[in-house]
Structure to design on (225 residues):
């Protein structure tokens, strides 16, 4: 089954404790990205990757890092989480570019930073 | 600034009624437009993808139209069912790098 898998689904952490949210897709997609969803602000892009070792900032990259060492994986790293990073996070992938083809989204990771 | 707007924010209809959801965008130079469905606590599911050269797409009870010149897209859902209750998101690709989302329309279909 074609899918984007995020882990964990739920996470509560403390300020300053480094964490990684994993994202993996099984469709051999070139393009992957991370979004956060906040009430009243909608979905905003954090980082995206056009292919292996090619990443770039989205609209709200501050406080986040990413890497793309393998085509299927695109982890989101919060080196020193803060309460304003409490949000619902989504990983997405598509075959080429951002919306050139159908976008597939993961189930989401609800992160709470206390 | 390239923006995507969805009005209304919420909609409640009786079962069987047709649903009409609106999406407007500020820049007519788009690559494509997608409609997504989001259920509470769940991810986004792609419903329809309309390329910039297309006027509409259909899938089952769903039909989406695109009018680039006026910056509008409409999602029609025929003969609504309680299972159609969800939040519907419109996303526009203005460049190669990201989807720009509207805030969504939350639909409730009353049995």
């Amino acid at each position: 089954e074609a899918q984007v898998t995020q882990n964990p689904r739920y996470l509560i952490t403390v300020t300053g404790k480094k964490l990684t949210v994993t994202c993996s897709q099984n469709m051999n997609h070139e393009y992957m990205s991370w979004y956060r969803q906040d009430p009243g602000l909608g979905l905003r892009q954090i980082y995206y990757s056009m292919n292996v070792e090619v990443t770039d900032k989205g609209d709200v990259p501050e406080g986040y890092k990413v890497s793309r060492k393998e085509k299927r994986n695109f982890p989101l790293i919060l080196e020193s989480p803060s309460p304003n990073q409490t949000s619902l996070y989504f990983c997405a992938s598509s075959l080429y570019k951002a919306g050139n083809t159908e976008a597939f989204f993961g189930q989401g990771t609800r992160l709470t930073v206390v | 600034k390239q923006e995507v707007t969805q009005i209304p924010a919420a909609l409640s209809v009786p079962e069987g009624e047709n649903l009409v959801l609106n999406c407007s965008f500020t820049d007519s130079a788009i690559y494509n437009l997608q409609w997504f469905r989001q259920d509470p606590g769940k991810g986004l599911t792609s419903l329809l993808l309309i390329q910039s050269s297309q006027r509409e797409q259909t899938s089952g009870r769903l039909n989406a139209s695109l009018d680039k010149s006026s910056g509008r897209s409409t999602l029609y859902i025929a003969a609504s069912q309680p299972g159609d209750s969800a939040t519907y998101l419109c996303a526009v690709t203005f460049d190669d790098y990201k989807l720009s989302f509207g805030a969504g329309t939350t639909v409730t279909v009353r049995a």
Q: What stands out?
A: Chain A touches chain B through 26 residues (CB under 8 Å).
